[in-house]
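re the bet — no i am not wrong, look at it urself. input seq straight from the record:
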Amino acid sequence: MEAYTSSRQYMPFTRPEATQWIRGPQLPSTPAIFNNGQLRVVPWFLEGVTIDQLAIEVTTIGGAGSVHRIGVYADNGSFYPGAVLFDSGPLATDVLGVAAVAAPMTLPPICWVGAVQQGAPAPGATLRSLTGAGGYELRGLDFASIAAQSATGYSTVGTTGALPPTFFTGNSIGFNAPSVAARVA
């Protein structure tokens, strides 16, 4: 693998080879269930990486008809999700294992990637997720609070149907989020 440094100098990383799977933040991972309609996104810093698939891992199946959507949002220039770049459409999460979808694109310098459970009959599916421990500080806190308050990304409620063309404003800080993986093209 060749070493690669972003032109924007975010961070150096080793460029993954074709057909390898990657994910954004390297945070602790654990299974978690998310509320129906709650879209959660995390920032990815993988400038110039071209992918061909996105996937989530179902660790406990949801009720019959359970679905999730994977979404990719551009950054709005203020380290906040902006315009939608990709909406997977509904992916079945009433079966165990990896749910993948074709997603041919070259990732921008910063993008926000996540998923939302929709129309979930009880029980909802449990997905592999990223925990907030060791996440990003998105709000600006006093120094003493940072260690106890680091977050993973943003979350919003009430997401039904297609993903909104622009990420909602006035959202919550998310302390865990679905772990979305991308396959390098």
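see?? The chain is about 5% helix and 45% strand. told u. also Confidence is low (pLDDT under 50) at residues 1-13. so pay up
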